[in-house]
Amino acid sequence: MDAEAKKLEELQRKQEKKRLEEEEEAAASKASKAPAKKLTQFEIQQSLAAAPASKAKSKPAKDADIEKNINHVIRETDEQFMAAGIEKHVASGVNEATELMRNLTASGGDSPDAHPERRRKAAFKSYEDREIPRIREENPGLKLSQIKEIIFKNWQKSPENPMNEGD
């Protein structure tokens, strides 16, 4: 019985192989069709004349499918902001954005007292320029470094010092 089973199995494999080869040949014959015949000038002219008519039929009838131009959308929103009285600020780039954020706050800008440490150096310089001649008159024998020490001590208590304004 083993011999019969082997023969039967081998016969089935041969039939399967033959069937696959036939399918392959059929697919290959479909793929290798004869080349298209050469078009004449008349046929080319006819196809060109028919092309615009087919394009007109295939055009979409709805304008809703077309996406709006982003520049028009931006312009319309700008006009709406202007009509509502809202000021719009635009910054492109990191430097411009940081400068814009520095200039703008929720309250409309920094108050001069918000950051007294920013004004301290300039205020001290003007105080020092004004006080050096006065201290020299009072103490003519002092060196410049000693005069500056006295001025700095006075500056620490002075109402002109921006750091003392909050006290």
Automatic annotation (TrEMBL):
Residues 1-68, 103-140 are annotated as: Disordered. One of its GO terms (biological process) is transcription by RNA polymerase II. It comes from Cryptomonas curvata. GO terms for molecular function: transcription coactivator activity. Residues 1-21, 126-140 have a biased composition (Basic and acidic residues). The keyword Coiled coil applies. Belongs to the CCDC124 family. GO terms for cellular component: nucleus. InterPro entries: Ccdc124/Oxs1 (IPR010422), Ccdc124/Oxs1_C (IPR054414). Keywords: Coiled coil. Residues 69-164 form the Coiled-coil domain. Residues 28-39 have a biased composition (Low complexity). It holds the Pfam family Ccdc124. This is Coiled-coil domain-containing protein.
